[in-house]
Amino acid sequence: MHEHEVPTHVQAEDRVLLWFTFPQIVALTAVAAVAYGLYSFAPGPFGVRLALAMLLALAGAAAVVGRIGGRKLPLVAADLLRFWLGPRRYAGAPAELARSEPPPAPPPAPNPVQLLVKRTRRGLRKLRKKRRRGERKSFRAHCRFGKPRFRRQCEGGKGSRFDIRPLAQRAGYALLAASIGVTTACGVMALASQPASADGHDQWFEEEVLTPESVPGQRLFVERLTVYGERAGFALRAATDLDVQVRAYGGDDGQTLVYQAKESLVTGERRGWDVPLDGDFPSVTVSWQDGFGEAGAFSLEGAQLPYPLPTVEGELCSLSVTSLSWSRGRIEGGIASTCVTEVEERFDLPVVSGHHTESVTALIEAAVSGLSGTVTVTSGAYSTSVALVPDGNTAFRLSIGSGAGIQRVSIEAAIEATTTSQLPALVELTHHPERTERLTETASVTIPAFGDSVTESITVTGEDGVPVVHSVTASCYAPQSTVRQDVVFTVVHEEHVRAEVVTRAPLVRARSESLALGQSVASDDPYAALGSQAPEEEDPIPSVQTAVDPEVLQWLLGVMGEQ
């Protein structure tokens, strides 16, 4: 008979069915039961109940079987809940955590389920107070999710009584299913909080860190912050000896490291950095560590960092802020302006006048001249005005109060110019009615000169009776002459309109526009050196006299005498 020894040092979980362990089979069974209960007893249409049951089943199966990086999903969820809901502490530098003796036993890790319940109670309490303040009516489930006859009765006010026992039965089943689900979830979370394997990879440790006593006071002061183009420059001054690390983040998500630098500053030393601004959401993070064993950090982002610098386009000029700088007691910057030489003017232009009038709306090119303007910079209760430099850079300086915060900067530009437009010619129409006119004119007729010769043959019978033919020729000539005669005639003029083109003079107008820009920049408190931390004086313990029994006093004196 063969003997088999089962190894006990492997610490591997047994696979009961396929690749599932016994706890996994129990958890899957509980999830299936809760999903079936939700499908069977939850109120609502068939499709909604089926979808909710399938979602619950898939989520439960993923929580039981799924892993992330070799770790079970409940363990990952427990760590995330502890991180989101639990307190956060600074552990200090790695050198400060080294100890020559083992630390005391750590306190028990906070249960994520308890933290979640506490946070849920707090939210429900706030919601209840908000509902009381708004005097909202109580929620009636049968009016919102019930059958149509229930909703009609709720909308119509008081109605006839109806039987709510089936609804109560369904609500009881749903409450029972929800209770089973919560119990199962709590069990799974409790199981997840326990070590899952003997190798220790799934355990979550929490160690108590012994930090030195805090030294109050600000370590770093921002004395200058400037944004120009796609770069930012800032100057820091140390109130004590510090190791400073500067990081700039950018990219599409604003989390890509684009710059990194480390410096060591002594007390009172001032150092400047110039970092690139990349992406739509850039930020600058400054972290420090001092000689007291403390560390900290602050960030410049969002409203604290004036990026991108604002621009605005107008019809006369386009303005863009080229730089914006904050230093103690003032805000400085520059505004670049690009102005036009021609602009389109809108006219309600008459094109025909007189007998008939016609106007059209036209856009006509106009020459711009005499452009000037004023730039007003405002931050809180402080304001200043400077003259605008057309097609140039306008610098401004605004004196403000000191103090940490976010300074809102408003820039308004009032621009004025003269436009000259060459207008097209105007057509003037004149109406002429019908009229009859009698005119007498002298007509002259010229008769040209005329001459002609005529020859004829004549037969004459002589005495002897013999015919004799004779040729007779006659000539005539009439000289040129002019004949003049007065003629009277009538002329009828029909009704008609005559047009005449008239040239118009150029039109000169005064034009103005207002442009506004806005941005914000961070400011800091004035520099103050960090004083040494003086030890706190302990209050002396007051002396208290206590009455002593005479017998006890005699016994004490005897003991002292023997010594």
Write a structural description.
The protein has 563 residues and is α+β, with helices and mostly antiparallel strands. The protein contains nine helices and 26 strands. A hairpin with a 2-residue loop joins strand 1 and strand 2. Helix 1 packs antiparallel against helix 8. The radius of gyration is 54 Å and the shape is elongated.
Low-confidence stretches: 135-139, 155-164, 188-212, 541-546
Mean pLDDT score? 77
Provide the structure class: alpha+beta
Radius of gyration: 54 Å
Note the overall shape.
elongated
Tally of helical runs:
9
What is the total tally of β strands? Answer: 26
What helical percentage do the residues reach?
10-25%
Cα distance spanning the termini: 84 Å
Query: What about the largest sheet?
Result: 7 strands, antiparallel
Task: Provide the β-strand percentage band.
Answer: 35-45%
What is the element layout, followed by pairings?
Layout: E1 15-17, E2 20-21, H1 22-41, H2 46-65, E3 67-68, E4 71-72, H3 73-85, H4 94-97, H5 112-134, H6 141-145, H7 148-155, H8 165-193, E5 220-228, E6 231-238, E7 242-250, E8 256-265, E9 270-276, E10 283-290, E11 295-301, E12 311-313, E13 317-327, E14 330-339, E15 342-354, E16 358-379, E17 382-387, E18 393-399, E19 405-421, E20 426-432, E21 435-447, E22 450-461, E23 467-478, E24 481-493, E25 496-502, E26 507-523, H9 550-562
Parallel strand pairs: 15-20
Antiparallel strand pairs: 1-2, 3-4, 5-6, 5-13, 6-9, 7-8, 7-10, 10-11, 12-13, 13-14, 14-18, 15-16, 16-17, 16-19, 19-26, 20-25, 21-24, 22-23
Helix pairs in contact: 1-2, 1-8, 3-5
